[in-house]
Amino acid sequence: MAVTTKMTTDKSKLWNIFKWSCLTAAFLFLGYRLICFQHYGRLLSQFKEISFWKTWYLWGVILLLPANWLLESVKWQRLVRNSEKINMALAFQSVMAGFLTAFFTPNRVGELAGRIAYLQPENRKAGITLSFVNSITQNIIMAICGIPAAILFFLSNKNSEFAGENNFFGYFLIVCGILLLLSGIYFSLPPLVGRIKQKKLSAKWINFIACLADYSLADLLKILLLSFLRYLVFSFQFYLMLRFFGVEINGLAAAIAIPTTYLFVTFTPSMAFSEAAIRSSYSVLVIGAFSGQTVQIILASTFIWVINFVIPMFVGSFVMMQTHPLRSNK
């Protein structure tokens, strides 16, 4: 009994250290972003010019936020169900904690730390692998939707700042190569892992990959479909935010510019402290080719980042403060 009590106490101490480290890092990064933001005056003047009817665009963005979270929670629940059956509430907590731990890390790689904390201890190795698979699915969708849109963008904007850059031909080749590689890896995982399991490997390595062996092609396609639906949601959110700030862009132009922007943002390595700036820069260069309203584009890009990353970070902070995921094995 004394040993069990000591182990529980040690786990609680580890959880508190992890929790407060994540909270401190996230809020320090947020403070840094607020200090570095240089458009407060323009933001205030822009809000004064926004009519009452345009606020419906903002409400649309906010109302779509739960759909974004729900789709990601359903996807995570489906991904881990071969390792551990979790209910929707626990899947939601995992996703929100992942938003917090991803907030301050390069290319959001820290997301897995928050997610696996809400799995049973014996399933966390599998959770690490499944978190990477989750990222692969979203990147595949980003590339599938973004590459055709980017080609149309260059064809329709031959005089843009990008058009004369020979480096972008190489960039497209790299992205297409990444898409083929990720797709090949993704769809070959179950049979590949099945073969690996037949060989004698250390149990610690099998625990990382065994979770992938039982997925059918239908399972993999359903997970990709959920990633695609989520992609549609946050792309439409971006469009509504552009409209809220008065950016004059029609549906066809938006269908080209927004996927192109997300493609460049996704496949540009970035540290967390520079991601918002990279997002704004690409938005201005790509969306600006269809609309010269630079300030409004910057504000829209910044605010969609606030809604889709800062708000979930706050929710994730609340979740981690109110829950204790370091549960006993049974």
Please provide a written account of the structure.
There is one protein chain. This protein is mostly helical and 330 residues long. The protein contains 12 helices and no strands. It has helices at residues 2-36, 40-49, 55-80, 88-102, 111-116, 124-156, 167-198, 203-209, 217-244, 251-266, 272-287, 294-322. It is globular. The mean pLDDT is 82.
Secondary structure tally, helices: 12
Strand content: under 5%
Total domains, how many?
1
- What is the rounded Rg? 21 Å
The termini sit apart by 16 Å
Q: What are the low-pLDDT stretches, counting only 5+ consecutive residues below 50?
A: none
Q: What is the helical fraction, as a range of percent?
A: over 70%
Average pLDDT confidence is: 82
The backbone outline, from C-alpha atoms, is: globular
Q: What string gives the helices and strands in order?
A: HHHHHHHHHHHH
- The beta-strand count equals 0
Secondary-structure content class: mainly alpha
Q: What does the largest sheet look like?
A: none
